[in-house]
Write a structure and sequence with these properties.
alpha/beta, Dihydrodipicolinate Reductase, domain 2, 8-stranded mixed sheet, 12 helices, oxidoreductase, EC 1.2.1.12, NAD binding, Glyceraldehyde-3-phosphate dehydrogenase
Length: 482
C-alpha cells in the first residue's frame, strides 16, 4: 500500500470513529444533561469533521496528542454509567485513565462519583434586557443549554422597537453573525405572538423602554433573572428598576458595576454570591480575562506592582468614520486607526481580588479588528521567575487547577487573534511570548472579548440559579514545581 492510500485509510477510519461519537454526545446532553468537551472545547453540535478538527486543535494549542479511539471509548463508558448533570472534560479522563492500571469502567466509576445520581436543577427563567453583541451570544449559549431540560431557560428579550419589521431583523441578527458564524440550527419568527423560535425555544420579544413597567408574569415568566446588556444603568439604584417589574427576582449586569455593587469574576469570587444578592455585576471582558491569570501569578510568585496594556478590538461605541463623539479620540474611525483610550480593568481587578488593590495601572489601545483582544501584563514579582518554570505552572493551571475554566494556555508560533474566536475560556496565555527576567515578567493573554466573556456571564448566571454543573474531573490546586 502506498503512502497516499495509507493516509486515506487512516483518515477514513478516524472519520468512522467520529461518526459514532455524535449520537453519544447528543444523548448524554439531552437525556442526562451532560456537557462534554476536550480541554474546554465543547463537542455538542460538531460535525464529523468538526470533531476531528477539535482533536487536531487541542494538540496544536499545546496539549498532548489525543487519539480519536480513546475519546470514543470514554464517551461509550459515560453512556454506560449515565452520570447526572455535569460538565465533563473527556480529554482529561483519557489522560487520567492512561495513568491508571484499572479497566476503563472502574476508573470512570470513581472519577464520576460526584455526578452519579446527581439530579437536574429546577429551570430558572432568564430575560435578556438588550439584544446587542453580548445579548445575542448569551442567547446562543442559553438556547444550546436548553436541550438538557434543566438549569437556565431563556424566556424573553426586551428591546426598544427599531422599525416596523423589528422582529424579523432581530431574528436575522441572531441567525447571522459576521464574527461567530451562522447560528447552529433554525431561527423562525412568530409574528402573531411576537416571538422568535430558535431550535424549538420560544423567546418572547417585549418592546419597552421602562424596565419597571414590564409585567413578565403576563408571559408566564416568574422569579426570573434579568440580564441587563444595555450598560445604561450601572449602579444599584438604576438597576433596581428591574426589580420593580412583576416576575423578576434578580438582576445581572454585563458591565462593570459602580458603587457598592459586587463585581463577580467567575472562578475568582463567585463563592461570595449569596441568595440575598438581588443585583450583581459580571464585571468587564478584560477584567474577566486578566484576573484569573493575575490570581495564579500572585499565589505562586507574589505581585508587587504591574501595568496592564490591552490591545482591544473596536466596539460599537466607536465611530466607523470620523465623526463627533463625546469620548476623547473615539470619534476617529475605528476601522482605520489605533486609538489610545482609557480602561478601568486594572482598578476593577481589585473589586474581585482585593489583595491586588492599588498595585495595578492600566491603559488600552483600540485596534481595527472586530473581535479578540490581547492583554499585556507587565508584572514586578516578589519572587524571581524562571521562564520555563513559569510557563509550566500556567500550563498546568489551565489543565488541572480550579481556574481551568478561566485560563487556557497555548504554545504555537502560528496562532493569531482569529484563532481564538469562540474560545470558552476567559483568557489564553501565549507561552511563547512570555518574558521573564528575574523579578520582572511580561505575559501575553489573548481573549475573545465577546464569546469568552459571554461564557463567564453564563457561569455567573448558573451560580446565581444554583445550576452550575458538577465539574469532572475535580479540579485541584496547582503549585510551582522545582
Amino acid at each position: 500500500m502506498n503512502d497516499f492510500a495509507a493516509r486515506h485509510d487512516e483518515w477514513t477510519s478516524r472519520e468512522e470513529l467520529a461518526e459514532r461519537m455524535i449520537p453519544l454526545i447528543g444523548s448524554l446532553r439531552r437525556e442526562r444533561d451532560v456537557v462534554t468537551s476536550l480541554h474546554g472545547h465543547r463537542l455538542l453540535g460538531l460535525s464529523t469533521k468538526g470533531l476531528l478538527e477539535v482533536h487536531e486543535r487541542v494538540a496544536q494549542l499545546g496539549h498532548a496528542q489525543l487519539r480519536v479511539e480513546d475519546t470514543l471509548a470514554v464517551l461509550e463508558g459515560l453512556r454506560r454509567l449515565n452520570p447526572g448533570a455535569s460538565s465533563i472534560d473527556v480529554a482529561r479522563l483519557v489522560e487520567g485513565h492512561a495513568a491508571d492500571d484499572r479497566d476503563l469502567d472502574a476508573y470512570l466509576r470513581e472519577v464520576l462519583a460526584p455526578a452519579l445520581g446527581a439530579e437536574p436543577a429546577e429551570p430558572t427563567d432568564v430575560v435578556l434586557y438588550g439584544f446587542g453583541r453580548i445579548g445575542r451570544l448569551l442567547a446562543r449559549i442559553l438556547i444550546a443549554h436548553t436541550s438538557g431540560g434543566s438549569g437556565l431557560r431563556l424566556r424573553a428579550i426586551v428591546v426598544r422597537r427599531g422599525a416596523e419589521n423589528d422582529l424579523v431583523k432581530r431574528a436575522s441578527l441572531l441567525l447571522h453573525d459576521s464574527v461567530h458564524g451562522r447560528f447552529e440550527g433554525s431561527v423562525e419568527v412568530d409574528e402573531a405572538n411576537s416571538q422568535i423560535i430558535a431550535n424549538g425555544t420560544r423567546i418572547q420579544v417585549i418592546y419597552s423602554d421602562d424596565p419597571a413597567s414590564v409585567d413578565y408574569t403576563a408571559y408566564g415568566i416568574h422569579d426570573a433573572i434579568v440580564v441587563d446588556n444595555t450598560g445604561r444603568w450601572r449602579d444599584a439604584d438604576g438597576l433596581a428598576q428591574h426589580l420593580q417589574a412583576k416576575g423578576v427576582a434578580r438582576v445581572l449586569l454585563t458591565a462593570p458595576g459602580k458603587g457598592e455593587l459586587k463585581n463577580i469574576v467567575h472562578g475568582i469570587n463567585d463563592d461570595t454570591i449569596e441568595d440575598s444578592d438581588r443585583i450583581l455585576s459580571a464585571a468587564s471582558c478584560t477584567t474577566n480575562a486578566i484576573t484569573p491569570v493575575l490570581k495564579a501569578m500572585d499565589e505562586a510568585y507574589g505581585i508587587v506592582r504591574g501595568h496592564v496594556e490591552t490591545v482591544h478590538s473596536f466596539t460599537n461605541d466607536q465611530n466607523l468614520t470620523d465623526n463627533f463623539h463625546k469620548g476623547d479620540r473615539r470619534g476617529r474611525s475605528a476601522v482605520l486607526n489605533m486609538v489610545i483610550t482609557e480602561t478601568g480593568a486594572a482598578k476593577a481587578v481589585a473589586r474581585a481580588l482585593p489583595e491586588l488593590a492599588g498595585k495595578l495601572t492600566g491603559s488600552a489601545i483600540r485596534v481595527p479588528t472586530p473581535d479578540v483582544s490581547l492583554a499585556v501584563l507587565h508584572l514586578t514579582l516578589e519572587n524571581p521567575a524562571d521562564r520555563e518554570q513559569l510557563n509550566d505552572y500556567l500550563r498546568r493551571a489551565s489543565l488541572h487547577s480550579k481556574l481551568r475554566q478561566q485560563i487556557d494556555y497555548v504554545e504555537s508560533p502560528e496562532v493569531v487573534s482569529t484563532d481564538f474566536v469562540g474560545s470558552h475560556r476567559a483568557g489564553i496565555v501565549d507561552g511563547l511570548a512570555t518574558i521573564a527576567t528575574g523579578n520582572d515578567v511580561v505575559l501575553y493573554v489573548w481573549y475573545d472579548n465577546e464569546y469568552g466573556y459571554s461564557c463567564q456571564v453564563i457561569r455567573v448566571l448558573e451560580t446565581m440559579a444554583g445550576s452550575h454543573p458538577v465539574v469532572i474531573p475535580t479540579r485541584r490546586e496547582v503549585t510551582l514545581t522545582a
